[in-house]
Input
Amino acid sequence: MPVQVFSTPPAIAFRRPWPTTRRGFKLWLISVVLGARGFTYATEPASRSGAFQFPFDWMTTQGWGVLVVLVCGVAVFSSYCHLGRDRFGYVAMTCLSGGWALCYGYGYAFRGAGEPAIQGLLSFLLIVVLLMHCAGDPEYQPGERRSRRGRR
Output
């Protein structure tokens, strides 16, 4: 059975700066917060090498910050899409947060980064779990509401 796709008129969808659906708002909020963190990685000097370590040498922290901002931009754009079209943003943000957690884990396991690396690993694994949970939320579809009065 094909999925029926509902569309929201742009005058309603873009009335506020955040998306009109719950799923979209959750994705938008996480994307904005992580995008701000990526912006700090992109603008600060490379002295931030404590717990966050790359397993490869071809990417700098500024490059990572630019990548984070770009992925978060895609996720913010897809958060305004409705009924399953926001899945690209959820996949992108889950992969990004998982990669971020792996870099913290690599810093702890192989570069001796210490407790800040464990804290970063656990916090970004929590974000991955939160994103996977939010991606499974059902979206409200028009016509699903039932009347509160019983049938007589």
